[in-house]
Amino acid sequence: MTEIHDDEADDPQHPEEHIAPVPRISVQAFCETEQTLKAVTAAGEDRRLAKAHLTAKSGGLAAAIEVYETMPTPNVIVIESDGTRDILEGLDDLAGVCDPGTRVVVIGNPNDTAPYRELVRRGVNDYVVGPVETIDVVRSICSLFSASEAIITGRIIAVVGAKGGVGASTVAHNVAWTIARDLALDSVVIDLDLAFGTAGLDYNQDPAQGIANAVLSPDRPDTALMERLLAKCSEHLSLLAAPATLDRVYDFGAEAFDAIFDTLRMTTPCIVLDVPHQWSAWTKRALVNADDIVIVAEPDLANLRNTKNMLSVLKTARPNDRPPLYCINQIGMPKRAEIDVKSFAKTMEVQPLAVIPFDSKLFSTAANNGQMIAEVSKSHRTTELFQTMANRLAGRGEVRKPKRSLLGPLLKKLKARTGRGSAPHRKAS
Description:
By secondary structure, the protein is of the alpha/beta class. It has helices spanning 34-43, 60-68, 87-95, 116-121, 134-146, 168-182, 199-202, 211-215, 223-229, 258-265, 281-288, 301-317, 341-348, 360-369, 373-376, 381-393, 408-421; strands at 3-4, 26-31, 53-58, 76-80, 103-108, 124-129, 155-161, 187-191, 231-232, 237-240, 270-275, 292-297, 325-331, 354-357.
């Protein structure tokens, strides 16, 4: 039994777009309506604007011009137009008090008649027609930097188990390997289980350095350091391995890994986090700040409870993101009483991203040989499942294979026979 469900993929509230976080910036918004004021204030709580210092107040263009006559302007100004005054005239007045380099976002009104090219000529970086929702504000501010800084803003996918031993690491490593191989997308796997991580074993790697060297470094990790610490697994896949030693205790603060993730985002299109099954300040932060989350669960009561709790907490912490995803692993284990997929999904109130069948021989062979599932059996249905998951999580959508015709094998045989029967005879000399 192998399934992929796309319920959330078509949800207009949670589109398949990737919105990269902003650097440390200051944003000031001047709103005309209460709805916009609430949307901008809520945007300031979004994970992608976590590094931004955002303030919102009422007054629109007039208030902004008055404020900046006596104080410097921030990195970004958000202005709402109520359509009652000439917006071009107002922007000309604003330009007279703006510092060079300030970026301007205008939330327009349907009554505005100014052509977009005239707004651009006056220095407007983005124009959004109101009324706006929180995600519109987040998207507009973030796009100013992801589009203009000429840097890669990598997508982070966090994979975590609802319970220990459910195969979350195996899922994370196979999905990352598939993204790198099948999509030719430069990817990095970060094994965050510093004491017991298995990514090095799964990829048949034994690097001398890895994630511990980065997180314990006294200096802020830069691109050069990260390049030295990465182990090359394939043409497009690198590994930041865990030491998997017990010579020290790995206790970290909530923001311990932020600089590592930020540095890798600048150079790597896809980053897969193999998050250990624990609930601490830094693991919760890693999950909340990821672009996509996959919770891996087995079909039993403890996994059911834990998955439900994790989905609830993470969805609440990320109101403007696609909801966290979950997959059910090791379905159909012999002699084990299981909660059926339908009942599991009913409790979650959403279908699983995938249902992965139990296959002891396949997975144990891969683990003991340091191989991925596709390397052991490229035609296995689980290999196809990881390919589809990789496409979904990399933002490429589901790849649907064309349906096989029932007449296909018969037509193939007929064609072969026709080919043999119609072969030209050599002319006798």
